[in-house]
Each structure stands twice: as C-alpha cells, then as structure tokens.
Amino acid sequence: MRRIACFRPRRALWDDGPVTSRPPAADRAGAIWVVAVGVYMLAVFHRSSLAVAGLAATERFDISASQLATFTMLQLLVYALMQIPVGLLVDRFGSRAVLASGAVLLTGAQAGFAFADTYPLALLARLFVGLGDAMTFICVLRLVSTWFAPRRIPVMIQVTGLIGQLGAITAAVPMTWALSNLGWTKSYLVAASLGIVMTAALLLVVHDAPDARNLRGPAMRPAAIRRSLADSWSHPGTRLGFWMHFSTQFSATVLGLLWGFPFLVKGEGLSEHAAGLLLTVMVVAMMAAGPLIGWRITLLPWHRSTLVLSILVAIVAVWTVVLAWPGEAPLPVLVVLVVVTGIGGPASVIGFDLGRTSNPPHRLASATGIINQAGFFASLILVIAIGLILDWRTPGASTDYSPDAFRWAMSFQYLLWAIGLVQIVRYRIKARARLRVDDPDEWAAQSGLI
C-alpha cells in the first residue's frame, strides 16, 4: 500500500495534477482561473445577498426570526449535504460541466427569489441557491490543482478564496443601496442577470485540462464510492482538516450570511450604513489574510494546525470581550471583532491543504467535499440556534430584538468552539502519529529532529 504523508507531502504528492505532454501555458491557466473564480465570486454574492436584506425580508414575508433563519438554514443544509455528491460528480464529469450547471442553477434561483412574494416560494428559491452554490468551490479547487504548478497550489487556493470574497463585499454596501433605491425585485433581478454573463464566459474559456475541454472519469459503482469515501474519512489528516474547517469558519459565515447585520444594528446600536461597512471590513480582512496564510503554510506545513489553533483562540477571545462589554461595545472593539473573525475564513481553508496532502489524486475532490461540509454544518447549527434563542428571549411575536437577546444568542458559539478545539487537538496528535508510522524520515525532518 502506498504511504502518504499527513502534513508535508513528498515530491510525488506535490505532482497531483493530471499528467500531460507539456506544461499549461501561464496565460491560458490565468484566463481559466479568472473566469472560474468569477463564477465562484458570483456564488458567494448570491449566498451572502440575504445578509443585508434580513430586516427587509422579515417585512416582505411577515416572518419571525426563526423563519428568517430558515432561509439560511435551508441554503446551508443543501450546500453541506451536496459537498460529497458534488465531489463525486467532479471526479466523474469534470469541473467545467459541474461548474456550468451550478451557474445556471444560481441564476434561475436568484431570479425566482426576486419575484417570490410568499414565504414558501422564497424558501424554494433559496434551496436552489444553495444547490447551485454547492457546485462551485470544489470545481475551482480542482481547476487550480490541474492548471497551476504544484508548489503554487496552497497560495492559489487562498487567493481563490480571497477573490471569491469580493462577492460578499458586493452583497454588503452595494446591495444595501440597491434595496433602498431599487426595491426588492429589481435588486435581485440585476444580481441574477450577472449569471448569464458568467455562464457564457465559462463555456467559452474554461477547459478541464490542457489537452481536453471536458474530462470524464470512470463510472463508479456504489461499493467503490463507499470504499473511496471511507478511505478518505479514515485518514486522520482528513479528519483534522474537517475539524479545522468546522471550528474557524462558522462565526464569519453566520455574520456574513444572516445575523451580522441585525446583530450590529439592534445588538450594538450601529446605523445600517455603519453595519454594512463593518461587514465589508470583515471581508477585506479575509482577503488580506488569505495570501499570507497560504504563504506561511507552504513554508511551515508542520505548523498548520498550530496556526489554526492560534487563530481560533483569538476569535474566541475577541468575542468574549464584545459579549462581556457592559452595554454597547465601542466601534474600535467591533472593528477588531470583524477583522479577527474574518481571518477565520482563510484559516478554515487550511483544512483543504490537509485533505490534499493526506489523500491520493483520485480521492481529492471527494476528500475536499468531506472537509468543505464541516464549516457549513457548524454554520447551519449556529443559524438555527441564534434564531431560536432570539425568539425565546424576545416577548411575544416581536422582531424588536434587544442587545441582551443577541448576547444570549451569540454565546451559543462557545459550544461549537469547545467541540472543535478538542477535536483539532485530538486529530493533530493522531495525524502526526500516522506520519511517524508511514514515513519516519519525513516525520523527523518536519518535526525538526534532524
């Protein structure tokens, strides 16, 4: 059986793209990446577009906090449940076909959300937003692994996440302006129309590999699929990546997707404009931290889990300061909150690097799907919990949530952080032990013993 390093790949594992007769041209690879990451950016925009529309949605559909949370809950549930099937689809049908299907679904779903005038119709539209969103990121990661030099992959993955977060920026201040000046239907129709342009560009530019527009993998029987997933999940490096993603992503995701805007406006007393700006600052922090994190883990792969643990402790600390502050926290403290919480986004991407170096190429997409669902399941749990706690702490059917209600609701994060912290430490030990058994020389080199 082939032995695979858990933390720092040997040279063979860096060469995880398909073998071709000549290296991809840099300009061609760049054009494909730009279009693919543009589709991912659009998916992040659609995913985040409800964040600043939460208060407007409660009025349009006459719903409670729990019902508002159901929008994001359903979207996240579909996204998380689709990660493994999408990984298998990418292995079977290639990135180009799956990414194009996702772009078409997103466009139709956002147009449906624009015209929805009842709660059930709006829920149906958000379900398909989650489905289309789920079909983007894994495809882009596979294209990065195919088209770029192996040692550039960790940084390119972080840059991909960085550029993708521009979609969250355009879902903050610009969407706030659009909803105020254009109204609900026109705002979401304009957003949907962008998908037509990106789908056309994708079909014209993107190729699965240097020597093929479309790649098709072999059909897998159910028994082979189960065996492949079991092999990926059984590796402690995959599980460590899973819990890294689980622990560091959910706080920023929930703030950006739904509860950040109401928390800052009603929980901390900011104006809508200031709340939108702070959410934009959070995304900028994600974008700034991503390349630095990618560069650091390339130099020091042994300390990937140490970096994640440090960022996780910082996130917990700054939330503790905000939630324990008597009354409304000062604006500078809230700026620190969104910056540190935002860094959790690129920190979660480190989990994909663990999956990449712990699995052979033919399991890459499915292992990525396993890891990618972790943070979104955590986000789903938190979205539901916040909505339920807000309704519990708010009298009657009112949506006039108090700062105290938000303090109770946001404190639910401590339970998820505690679970994640324990599991990261646990599988960090197991993954390093696995490396020591599989490759003692590599373990000694990485741990600094030689």
What is the count of distinct domains? 1
Low-confidence stretches: 1-24
Shape: globular
Integer average pLDDT = 83
Per DSSP E runs of 2 or more residues, the count of β-strands stands at: 0
Question: What is the percent of helical residues?
Answer: over 70%
CATH class: Mainly Alpha
Radius of gyration: 21 Å
Major sheet, described briefly?
none
Distance between the termini: 26 Å
Topology-level CATH name: Growth Hormone, Chain: A
Secondary-structure element order, N to C: HHHHHHHHHHHHHHHHHHHH
Please identify which CATH superfamily we are dealing with. MFS general substrate transporter like domains
Count of alpha and pi helical runs: 20
Counting helices, strands and paired strands, the structural category is mainly alpha
Second-tier CATH architecture:
Up-down Bundle
Strand content: under 5%
